[in-house]
Write a structure and sequence with these properties.
Distance between the termini: 74 Å
Helix content: 55-70%
Strand order of the largest sheet: 2-1-5-4-3
Number of strands: 5
Order of helices and strands: EEHHHEEEHHHHHHHHHHHHHHH
Radius of gyration: 23 Å
Largest sheet: 5 strands, antiparallel
Shape: globular
Structural class: alpha+beta
Oligomer: single chain
């Protein structure tokens, strides 16, 4: 008798049931996957990115989705299969999906679009998070440009933003590399899709562990080359800022420092790196030197970026604790995280008000007001949902808070 796999999962794809047929077909035991892995484990990464979301949407809309596809066994062997996906319900509410799979004798070809391959590199590098660094760079840039006597060189500014992007992407990829090496990502089953738990690019087969290290190194070398060029054209300060940022990003997860395991040092260094180092470094590119205010204007964006890191640590806390990643959420517990979040965002807002007064820029009270309104809403939601997966809405809103606040802050210097 030909085995038939039946697998059910929750709304985020975490496996809930795994029958004997699934064990035979996919090569995993129930103990290995139930509550520990997501169903994306069984599909090649490009198919996951290109098709799975659409399959699930069709299953919800029409009651089922049926197709022929390619799956992956534990051994890494790919095989053709027929799958029927249906939504599952409890008390009238959808709670997940059920997939029934049969192995096919005939080969199956799943065409992968060029756009999917492009998106895969966005996943590998976590490029959408570039807004955190580039917007802070914009703050430093516009602050410097509004100073009397400033004469900007467009090429240098463009290269500075490109180098900043390379540095940020390099840090992202190194972070994934060392989190996989340390076992942190493998132990993490509760991450929020797209927002925490790393890119999962290695798990999806989009890139190898060695390929991750090579890619991160290449990105770092590109940033270094730009840094050396700007160093010769403008100021030696620029290379110093770049080196400081590169070391902070690398040792966030890399041994022996592994700042993310140092009881708050990880959050502190991320706040500094994605705040004052960027804003002051950008001023150095434009004027040749940084001043005290160029550091201070980066503090609010940096603190708000630290809060992105903080709230993304919540779903990862249990697995992080097991692998020695003792960040603030692990040390103080999830229940105290809203209070820590409030303290950090309050610091950002207070510094902004101080800057508005000291720099005679009353317009800076606008991002302070916007930030206050958004922060109150986020903290209220956090307190009610800190132990629930519905907390993910606060993760999203924290990213929005940092982006909106920093963009409006930059525009205030432009005006």
């Amino acid at each position: 008798m030909i085995a038939k796999s039946t697998v059910t999962c929750d709304m985020e794809g975490i496996i809930e049931t795994f029958n004997a047929g699934a064990e035979e077909i996919f090569g995993y035991t129930k103990e290995e996957v139930i509550g520990k892995k997501r169903v994306s484990l069984f599909s090649p990464g490009h198919i996951v990115l290109q098709n799975v979301e659409g399959w699930l949407a069709t299953a919800v809309r029409e009651g089922e989705f049926v197709t022929d596809t390619v799956f992956v066994r534990k051994s890494g062997e790919q095989f053709p299969a027929h799958i029927r996906i249906t939504p599952t319900f409890r008390d009238g509410q959808q709670i997940g999906f059920c997939g029934v799979t049969e192995v096919l004798e005939k080969p199956v070809q799943v065409p992968i679009k060029f756009s999917t391959k492009l998106v895969s590199w966005l996943v590998v590098t976590r490029a959408p998070f570039l807004s955190a660094s580039l917007l802070t760079g914009l703050v430093g840039c516009l602050y410097a440009l509004q100073l009397p006597g400033t004469h900007a060189v467009g090429l240098n500014i463009g290269l500075a933003f490109l180098g900043l992007a390379f540095l940020h992407l390099s840090a992202n990829v190194f972070n994934d590399y060392f989190d996989v090496q340390s076992g942190t990502d493998d132990a993490n089953t509760q991450y929020f899709l797209k927002y925490s738990g790393g890119s999962r690019a290695i798990e999806l087969g989009l890139i190898t562990l060695r390929g991750t290290f090579v890619l991160a190194t290449v990105l770092l070398l590109l940033a270094t080359a730009i840094g050396f060029y700007l160093n010769t054209q403008v100021s030696s300060e620029i290379l110093m800022f770049g080196i400081a940022g590169a070391l902070s990003g690398f040792f966030y997860t890399a041994p022996p420092l592994r700042l993310s395991a140092r009881r708050g040092l990880g959050e502190l260094f991320i706040g500094l790196t994605f705040g004052p180092l960027i804003s002051a470094g950008m001023m150095s590119v434009i004027t040749g030197h940084a001043d005290l205010w160029s550091f201070l204007i980066g503090v609010p964006p940096g603190l708000l970026t630290a809060n992105i890191l903080l709230i993304n640590e919540v779903p990862d806390a249990e697995s992080d604790a097991k692998t020695g990643k003792n960040h603030l959420v692990v040390v103080y517990g999830k229940e105290r995280t809203p209070a820590i979040y409030t303290a950090i965002v309050s610091g950002a807002l207070l510094v902004t008000v101080y800057l508005a007064w000291s720099l005679h820029k009353p317009l800076l009270l606008i991002p302070a007001a916007i930030g206050t309104l958004l922060a109150v809403r986020i903290v209220s939601h956090m307190r009610k949902n800190i132990l629930l997966r519905s907390l993910v809405q606060s993760n999203v809103n924290t990213i929005i808070l940092q982006a909106v606040f920093t963009l409006v802050m930059a525009l205030c210097f432009l005006m």
